[in-house]
Amino acid sequence: MWDPTQYTRFRDERKRPFFELLSRVDAESPSHVADLGCGTGDLTRVLSERWPQAQVVGVDSSVEMVEEARRRPASATVRFEVGDLADWRPERPLDVLVSNAALHWLPDHATLMGRLVAKLAPSAVLAFQVPANFEAPSHRLVDEARALPRFASKLAPVRRRPVETLERYEALLSDAGLSVDAWETTYLHLLPGEDAVLQWLLGTTLRPVLAALGDEEGRAFVEELRPRLRQAYPAQARGTAFLFTRRFVVARRGG
């Protein structure tokens, strides 16, 4: 379902939130670090550079992404695995667990938070960010196209990707015994190129939609969506303005 080349088309915009998240992770010398939803592994390598003494594992459910990650140079302390992000179990409790723009693909975040906490060692840090723009024009227009009679039946099983509020994440993790720092950031991206917002969505949001539709109907869906996005996000000489809100959580388990 995933296309590493399409996903990395907006590499700088996608990795910026990771560094904002990582800047709030206070961990001096962790031994075991994991990156859930590692994609092509670029940011997993950043974790190994920050903590060179740690064993770092990147986990992704996409075979294509993990194969691409394994092709790229990495330290001997880094490895990549294909695995379900909810059910994956580390070989030993983790000192740092990071997930950048991946957990929104998983359902039932109330249960998920408990599963993630169970992977942590005492005094470990859980840090994740998820998109929080599901009511933005881009996603509303995708939903409008999904509801069209031509596509609705095939796309009924493809769920939207809701996330919890900051207050809910704080409550879930505090109840599990963690201290929580949570915040939101809205980025204004100026995306280059023609149909820039469509190209952004083709790297993420539209992947399961197109996989469910197949080639011919997928192309028809894209052509249905294209003019809607052009109207909502007009291109300018300096780029297409695209507001994107992300939700961040950094939580530390008690010792």
From TrEMBL:
<dbReference type="InterPro" id="IPR023149">
    <property type="entry name" value="Trans_acon_MeTrfase_C"/>
</dbReference>
<dbReference type="GO" id="GO:0032259">
    <property type="term" value="P:methylation"/>
</dbReference>
<keyword id="KW-0489">Methyltransferase</keyword>
<dbReference type="GO" id="GO:0030798">
    <property type="term" value="F:trans-aconitate 2-methyltransferase activity"/>
</dbReference>
<dbReference type="InterPro" id="IPR041698">
    <property type="entry name" value="Methyltransf_25"/>
</dbReference>
<dbReference type="GO" id="GO:0005737">
    <property type="term" value="C:cytoplasm"/>
</dbReference>
<dbReference type="InterPro" id="IPR029063">
    <property type="entry name" value="SAM-dependent_MTases_sf"/>
</dbReference>
<dbReference type="InterPro" id="IPR023506">
    <property type="entry name" value="Trans-aconitate_MeTrfase"/>
</dbReference>
<keyword id="KW-0808">Transferase</keyword>
<keyword id="KW-0949">S-adenosyl-L-methionine</keyword>
<comment type="similarity">
    <text>Belongs to the methyltransferase superfamily. Tam family.</text>
</comment>
<dbReference type="Pfam" id="PF13649">
    <property type="entry name" value="Methyltransf_25"/>
</dbReference>
<comment type="function">
    <text>Catalyzes the S-adenosylmethionine monomethyl esterification of trans-aconitate.</text>
</comment>
<keyword id="KW-0963">Cytoplasm</keyword>
<feature type="domain" description="Methyltransferase">
    <location>
        <begin position="33"/>
        <end position="121"/>
    </location>
</feature>
<protein>
    <recommendedName>
        <fullName>Trans-aconitate 2-methyltransferase</fullName>
        <ecNumber>2.1.1.144</ecNumber>
    </recommendedName>
</protein>
